[in-house]
Amino acid sequence: MRYLVVFSLFVLLMSCQGNKKPAADANAASDTMRFANEKHLKNIKMLTMEGENAEAYFSFDNNKLIFQSTHGSYQCDQIFTMNTNGENKKLVSTGYGRTTCSYFLPGDEKIIYASTHLADTSCPAPPDFSKGYVWKVYKTFDLIKANADGSNPEVFLPAEGYDAEATISPMGDKIVFTSQRDGDLDIYTCNLDGSDLKRLTTELGYDGGPFFSWDGQKIVYRSYHPKTDEEIKRYKDLLDEELIEPNNFQVWVMNADGSNKHQVTDNDFANFAPFFHPDNNRIIFCSNLNSTDKRRPDFNLWLINEDGTGLEQVTYFDQFDGFPMWTKDGKKLVFASNRFNKNPRDTNVFLADWID
């Protein structure tokens, strides 16, 4: 489930108020896309140049990225691959419906993503913003497996309701994804062939956006669990309309078998897109912790230890930085950002050296 279109509306609003950008780091004349205080980033390169691009994830050999993009004639997200220098961009989804949540499978000869094209080849309707700041969880999203060039797309683990957000264990043996197949939005794992399907979360509320740790022993994810009767009713009512409210997502971690669930962040903001550092302890995530005006959200990347200590801001752009992923050696970080965009609604993919 991806929400770039929703956030872009906020970006458009900000552009009407000036589209102010923070100052670049004066000590890094050759690193013009890095802002002051971004001490963990170096040699930032923009890999896409237009449109709404996000969720870029490395292939197992680290030579390619797979990502979703809306640009040109594409009216809603499709899946593309490109080299890590931004060259050789190729459409690998069908070009129909809306797609999201793409990932390479071990060996990099196959990919997995979610798509609505089996139900309808046109773009599905966007969220109803009269309901507030909401994200759409289309029941028509199905998991699709295909060859890396996009050929031979086949539905994977078909079920009633939302199926998306699939990622692969770095150990190459498991898939983790979010599904509504049992009524609520929960996290499941299975083998690469779909066998040994297991539901890992059972708490009422949204559990999703899962990623394995690099040793395959843990899963980091985002959650919202309503507590009061009013919160529970609103969550259920919105879910009936294929909507969720992301305003108070928190980062959680559990063992790969679903045991030892524990909350990592504890604040009143939206925390999502968590990803483990190769040390299997630190977590990078996206949050609007800095936002003082919900009409102008300020999403940045943050670091935190699994036990909730050591919170540290990583990026300092005043609009949106998100969807981070490290290479296995921890030397590179890919992320999506509105920084230095040509148009107010553009979000692009960036690659940076990571400095510990």
CATH topology: Neuraminidase
Rg estimate, integer Å = 19 Å
Q: SSE order, as H and E?
A: HEEEEEEEEEEEEEEEEHEEEEEEEEEE
What is the CATH class name?
Answer: Mainly Beta
User: Strand-residue fraction?
Assistant: 35-45%
Please state the overall shape, judged from the principal axes of the Cα atoms.
Answer: globular
CATH architecture: 6 Propeller
User: With helices defined by DSSP (H or I, 4 residues minimum), what is the helix count?
Assistant: 2
Note poorly predicted spans. Answer: 5-20
| Average predicted local confidence, pLDDT | 92
With strands numbered from the N-terminus, the spatial order across the biggest sheet is: 1-26-25-24
Span from first to last CA?
30 Å
Q: Name the CATH superfamily assignment.
A: TolB, C-terminal domain
Q: Please indicate the count of domains.
A: 1
Largest sheet entry:
4 strands, antiparallel
Structure class:
mainly beta
How many strand segments?
A: 26
Q: Helix coverage percent of residues?
A: under 10%
